[in-house]
Amino acid sequence: MNSHAFLTSEKLALFYAQLEKNKKYPGPLMPTLHDAQHIFGHIPLEVQKIIAKELNESIAKINGVVTFYGNFSVTPKGRKTISVCLGTACYVRGSQNVMEALQDELKIKAGETTKDGEITLCATRCIGACGLAPVFSIDDQIHGNTNVQKAKQILKEMKATIHETK
Predict the structure, then answer these.
(1) Pair 143, 85: CB distance under 8 Å
(2) Of the four, 31, 48, 129, 139, which is 20 to 30 A from 156 by CA?
(3) 109: how many CB neighbours lie within 10 A of its CB?
(4) What is the pLDDT of residue 70?
């Protein structure tokens, strides 16, 4: 597969239009990065170079911002994102076991996307639902008081939903 397949002329035209709008306001970097993530599904080096040139910023600064914030990704993300909390409260109540079970089921490691491009698995430090520990989320939906069996069941249901919507 062409690694630049995501850089279609339609997506580039849309991105440049958004970039021009963002340039009219102070602090255009963050809105531009959000637009890039939304339009391309990730912000690889090729897109970072465009942003750096257009906003007259260093590639190091752009890359630093992209890699610092969890909602930006340098690799394509799946249609669904599963985030397992590995913060203290969740970790001591077994979230590492949940993470390992999901890695086994999906055949990927944290930070990777399944071969079919459907699911990205992430480790996160805190979802903000410590009272429900251990927790994980699928996109914006939080699943609390979980364990390995419950996580596998939720994953199975999610996979069935994904295949129905294809």
Answers:
(1) no
(2) 129
(3) 10
(4) 74
